Amino acid sequence: MAARALLTRKTLASVLRKDARPLGVGAAVATHSRGLHVYTLPDLEYDYGALEPAISGEIMQLHHQKHHQTYITNYNKALEQLQDAVAKADSSAVVKLQAAIKFNGGGHINHSIFWKNLAPVREGGGEPPKGSLGWAIDTHFGSFEALIQKVNAEGAALQGSGWVWLGLDKELKRLVVETTANQDPLVTKAPNLIPLLGIDVWEHAYYLQYKNVRPDYLKNIWKVINWKYANDVYEKESS
Amino acid sequence: MASLGLQNVAGINLLFKEGPKVNAKFELKPPPYPLNGLEPVMSQQTLEFHWGKHHRTYVENLKKQVVGTELDGKSLEEIIVTAYNKGDILPAFNNAAQVWNHDFFWECMKPGGGGKPSGELLELIERDFGSFEKFLDEFKAAAATQFGSGWAWLAYKASKLDGENAANPPSADEDNKLVVIKSPNAVNPLVWGGYYPLLTIDVWEHAYYLDFQNRRPDYISVFMDKLVSWDAVSSRLEQAKALSA
């Protein structure tokens, strides 16, 4: 019984981490007494101020310590309630929890990717993609600049809160630009989509610095995009 | 100054009863108080951006979208209902509804507002929610749990939904009662038919981020405690009852 629980936990953890490298050294794995995985805030691989002037340190700190932390807290809470509901075979409670799981779990997934999509300029942030992703972008969008234009246009046009993505469609083996509402992760658009790059266009991602001018935020964020990460994921997923 | 909201509600009623074809001119209406009038609860800087930039942009974009189209000459309310298009929204919807929502929102607040309503409004709140405190809990919870951008509303539900224009209409409750509802992004209760909005709070992050950052619940609490113009809400209720009678 104990061995089975351990195996289940390990499998779950490896599934959850499939999207990327381990989420930083600070992502300590804690567990409930009942064996439920408890998510913790992943460390950033750079200082809050390291993306300035593209993104201010104040934004990064609030975004990471407050917003991302809140998604994690509420995700853990929802998962605990889900476990209770499942244990009690309370189907209506299970279904009722789906919205909170999608929103808060999505918030955790999306932000975990987002932090890895960013890098300070001195660590390669903003350097256009090399390797096979660079070729694929030229093939699918015409040029790197054309991709940026498309992402900026879709990100600016998104109503309310959400994300704009560069994804890999594993089935059709092609790159796509998609948007998702609120904290919906890219996989909610189609199960075969792998996120390579996600840009947060919630107002909290830029408001203290760019106020109502979302297009300026989108224009500047390319200066700190970590294309090495996107390329690594692309090569791993398309091989 | 609560009359702006009333005219809007009256306009909707006219729209359905008589279908006015007045040439609509969309203008950026100023809030009925100076931009520093809600300090220190809602800062002048927030109003300068929220009204001076966001609201203005909705007005300007709507004008551009409407000119020379079949929507030209329609009232704001008509555009909202038409462009909602049963949930498969047309481009003008977001700007039109956000213009209406913001006009309505500014009227929901006043310097030195908050406290408790009185008269018939309080009676109906107590009848339909159990107590004023229970209403506050429900309204605050709706505003806090709207995923992403949107609005929370207190509305007078006058008649049974016809469901004609509604995508995912709120569950059918009894008629002629007060209800708390929330709506995503630009959506407002006009699109569902039979609802008379009485009070709203904007929970787009731009409404509170400069003053409260991520602390949306604090913003909601202080809005209810210090900003709500219950006079405006009472007048709208009176109007809603008259129009729906």
TrEMBL record, chain A:
Enzyme Commission number: 1.15.1.1
Binding site for Mn(2+): H63, H111, D200, H204
A GO MF term: manganese ion binding
Entry GO CC: mitochondrial matrix
Keywords (A to Z) from UniProt: Manganese, Metal-binding, Mitochondrion, Oxidoreductase
Keyword set includes Metal-binding: yes
InterPro entries per UniProt: Fe/Mn_Superoxide_Dismutase, Mn/Fe_SOD, Mn/Fe_SOD_BS, Mn/Fe_SOD_C, Mn/Fe_SOD_N, Mn/Fe_SOD_N_sf, SOD_C_sf
Reaction catalyzed: 2 superoxide + 2 H(+) = H2O2 + O2
Domain Manganese/iron superoxide dismutase N-terminal: 39-119
Listed cofactors: Mn(2+)
Manganese/iron superoxide dismutase C-terminal domain residues: 129-231
Subcellular location: Mitochondrion matrix
Pfam families per UniProt: Sod_Fe_C (PF02777), Sod_Fe_N (PF00081)
Family to which the UniProt record says this protein belongs: Belongs to the iron/manganese superoxide dismutase family.
Subunit text: Homotetramer.
Purpose of the protein: Destroys radicals which are normally produced within the cells and which are toxic to biological systems. Destroys superoxide anion radicals which are normally produced within the cells and which are toxic to biological systems.
UniProt-recorded name of the protein: Superoxide dismutase
Species: Vigna unguiculata (Cowpea)
TrEMBL record, chain B:
Keyword Oxidoreductase attached: yes
Cofactors named for this entry: Fe cation
Binding site for Fe(3+): H50, H102, D202, H206
One GO cellular component, as annotated: chloroplast nucleoid
UniProt key word Protease: no
InterPro entries membership: Mn/Fe_SOD (IPR001189), Mn/Fe_SOD_BS (IPR019833), Mn/Fe_SOD_C (IPR019832), Mn/Fe_SOD_N (IPR019831), Mn/Fe_SOD_N_sf (IPR036324), SOD_C_sf (IPR036314)
Manganese/iron superoxide dismutase C-terminal domain residues: 117-236
Keyword annotations: Chloroplast, Iron, Metal-binding, Oxidoreductase, Plastid
Pfam families tied to this protein: Sod_Fe_C, Sod_Fe_N
Residues where Mn(2+) binds: H50, H102, D202, H206
Cellular localization per UniProt: Plastid, Chloroplast
Top enzyme category: oxidoreductase
An MF annotation (GO) of this entry: superoxide dismutase activity
GO BP, one annotated term: response to copper ion
Domain Manganese/iron superoxide dismutase N-terminal: 25-110
Role summary: Destroys radicals which are normally produced within the cells and which are toxic to biological systems.
Family the entry assigns: Belongs to the iron/manganese superoxide dismutase family.
Name by which UniProt lists this protein: Superoxide dismutase
Taxonomic placement: Eukaryota, Viridiplantae, Streptophyta, Embryophyta, Tracheophyta
